[in-house]
Specification:
190 residues, globular
Length: 190
């Protein structure tokens, strides 16, 4: 995988860009002036990112993901991951048949639901999963592959299915590892 250089990243005009950020030269980035990316985060091949986004530290967005922040925005807290072909949306058309759909139709004929999405710290979204507008994926949640998250979750749960259902508690051992990792990083920079 080839990544953009620091100069190329700076020239794109991001709202803010941290240190050691890696973005594939095959990723598509729209509206970079509305996107904030913090230190040590990575965006892989064939991802599409658009709209208002806040991407924390140590976030990984795997190949072929769609992250559509729109006007409302998506927040990825520190240590989040979005696996292959994951999709996150902040807006959706009304599919009831009461309105026309798609962006080619004037807004007076459509009804678009728009709401921000928030991923808490240490959230991992499995391959092929989808997160709908207005969802808050609480801290420490793990979402299994091919899961449809259409309602907010409770912290430190493992969710699977369509729609997502909590099936068990997620272990918190990773919090100890996070502390050790950050201490080592601090000591390496002294």
């Amino acid at each position: 995988m080839a990544y953009l250089t620091q100069t190329q990243l700076e020239d794109m005009g991001f709202k803010s860009i941290g240190e050691n950020v890696k973005i594939s030269d095959k990723a598509s980035i729209y509206n970079p002036e509305t996107i904030e990316i913090d230190d040590n985060s990575r965006i892989d091949d064939f991802c599409v990112l658009s709209g208002k986004l806040i991407i924390g530290k140590y976030v990984h967005i795997a190949p072929q993901c769609l992250v559509a922040g729109g006007d409302e925005g998506i927040t990825f807290s520190d240590f989040c991951g979005l696996a292959y072909q994951g999709q996150i949306f902040t807006q959706s058309d009304d599919y009831t048949g009461l309105n026309l759909t798609n962006p080619n139709i004037p807004s007076r004929y459509t009804k678009v639901f728009k709401k921000k999405v928030f991923l808490g710290k240490h959230v991992i979204i499995g391959a092929g999963s989808m997160v709908f507008p207005g969802v808050h994926v609480a801290e420490g949640c793990s979402v299994g592959a091919m899961t449809l998250v259409n309602k907010s979750t409770e912290a430190w749960g493992i969710y699977v299915g369509n729609p997502a259902k909590r099936v068990k508690e997620r272990k918190k051992d990773l919090l100890i590892l996070e502390k050790q990792f950050l201490e080592e990083r601090t000591n390496d920079h002294i």
